[in-house]
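Extended Data, panel c. Modelled sequence:
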Amino acid sequence: MPSLDVILLVLAVFLFAGFVKGIVGMGLPSITLAMLAATIGLKPAMVLIIAPTMATNIVQAVTGGHFRALAARFWPLFAASVAGVIAGTGVLARADGVKRAAGLGVLMMFFAASNLA
């Protein structure tokens, strides 16, 4: 069982990231992953963001009113995402901590640059 400090930290990070997502419309995974990886480690952070990220994305897709059109348009992306998650899980399980942290940093820079562009 995690300590009360860790639970409060995770709650505060998700509250902040949810606030940003509500204003900007994106940012929950990137903010939570960056902040939690820096404090509790990359593996626990990735485990903690899976369910909230999926939930917010599903709610946005279903309540937007164009779910069928989106699914028809983006099914190749969905299929590639499943394959990428499976492959990425294998790489993450075998990589050491320094390589995982460096990879996360590079991905976060690309994500931030693409959102700013």
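The chain is about 90% helix and 0% strand. This feature is highlighted in the accompanying rendering.
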